[in-house]
Fibronectin type-III domain-containing protein (marine sediment metagenome), 271 residues
Amino acid sequence: YWRVQAVDNSFEGGLFSIQDTFSIVPVQTTNLIAKIMKENSLLLKWERGNGSRCIVFCKETSTDIAIPVNNESYIPDNEYGYGEQLGTTGWYCVYNGRSDSVTVSGLKYKTDYSFHIIEYAGEIGSEQYFPELVNGNPGVFSTGLFSEQTSISLSTSWFNIYTWGDYNNDGFSDLLIPGKPTKLFKNCGDNSFSEVSTSLPSVSYGAAAWGDYDNDGDLDIAITGGINSSTLPAISRIYRNDGSGIFTEQTQISLDSVYYSAIDWGDYNND
């Protein structure tokens, strides 16, 4: 709660205002990422919320969430299975503190693990755990080289070549999938993608490639493919990125129209 008192130049204080209250909105941990260190360990990193500390629970192949009990402390151990368990749920505490990363060992090779990071207020023994759930937390990561990200929804596409590129320069690779329709998916940085509205053409047997042809620091798009038109059965076009994610066809650039093809950028004359 809070109250206000006015004090004049002679340090005489007036009456306090009526008492009022305020609350701080809890902000949960976001942007979980993991890196394979060895076949049985992962380096987990995250972006802290506004709790005084955070606690990390890990569980093998899970779709549920960790629910710690307020005013209860959980003893961590970064070797999986040795930290304190949440009852008999299979969620083991692997970290408890103020940092934004932990290396978790003792994991099985080629196995998926769920990590749930929860911010909390208060000191040890008087924890008030934030109940908020955010996209990508819990996050699922694998000790194998590849793990299907079933939580990510993308469009299907036949006989086309997709391409990765950071079109908005936020440090995360975005995904362009030529097809009918052609779709651009923005990487939100939290194990999720959102579709971006564009004017890119629909193509079959097509391909696309990112390249900064005008050297303005933003990735532009070259796209080819068939458009099922009797007058123009195929296209090859360049779309300029204006820096805000809007792509405009460069009609003054004429290229041979192709499909059943691949496309790429390169500086052939070293200029």
